[in-house]
Amino acid sequence: MITIKSILISISVVFFFAVVGNVFVDDALTVWYANLNKPWYLVPLWIFIIVGIFYYIMSGIILYRQINNISESKLRKIALILTISMLIGNELWNYLFFGLKSTFLGFISLIPFSIIVVTLAPKKNRCLFI
């Protein structure tokens, strides 16, 4: 059953993280990133923007399903913590890569972020915790 409260919570949380992440980016996207020496095979920036939009939409859907469709349990709490950690990890990457303008720290921060994403990834049509 779809509940407005679950939808609003999911949208609010994801929107909050998206706004915070953009604060870290500031003008680094148009100035610093634009001047980086990038490989020829790197996709255009507009593709990264589309992927980012889909990331936030999928995060909102994941949060909604965890809030609305799962009965209260220890695994649900773990899944919610991992999902919020994934959102925090993404914004941490924004801060390290764009805010501090560090390709190295941005790369290193992808390791724990990737572990969280793999843990949340579907396993035989189900997330590890859902």
TrEMBL record:
<dbReference type="Pfam" id="PF03073">
    <property type="entry name" value="TspO_MBR"/>
</dbReference>
<dbReference type="GO" id="GO:0033013">
    <property type="term" value="P:tetrapyrrole metabolic process"/>
</dbReference>
<feature type="transmembrane region" description="Helical">
    <location>
        <begin position="7"/>
        <end position="25"/>
    </location>
</feature>
<feature type="transmembrane region" description="Helical">
    <location>
        <begin position="104"/>
        <end position="121"/>
    </location>
</feature>
<keyword id="KW-1133">Transmembrane helix</keyword>
<comment type="similarity">
    <text>Belongs to the TspO/BZRP family.</text>
</comment>
<keyword id="KW-0472">Membrane</keyword>
<dbReference type="InterPro" id="IPR038330">
    <property type="entry name" value="TspO/MBR-related_sf"/>
</dbReference>
<feature type="transmembrane region" description="Helical">
    <location>
        <begin position="78"/>
        <end position="98"/>
    </location>
</feature>
<protein>
    <submittedName>
        <fullName>Tryptophan-rich sensory protein</fullName>
    </submittedName>
</protein>
<feature type="transmembrane region" description="Helical">
    <location>
        <begin position="45"/>
        <end position="66"/>
    </location>
</feature>
<dbReference type="GO" id="GO:0016020">
    <property type="term" value="C:membrane"/>
</dbReference>
<dbReference type="InterPro" id="IPR004307">
    <property type="entry name" value="TspO_MBR"/>
</dbReference>
<keyword id="KW-0812">Transmembrane</keyword>
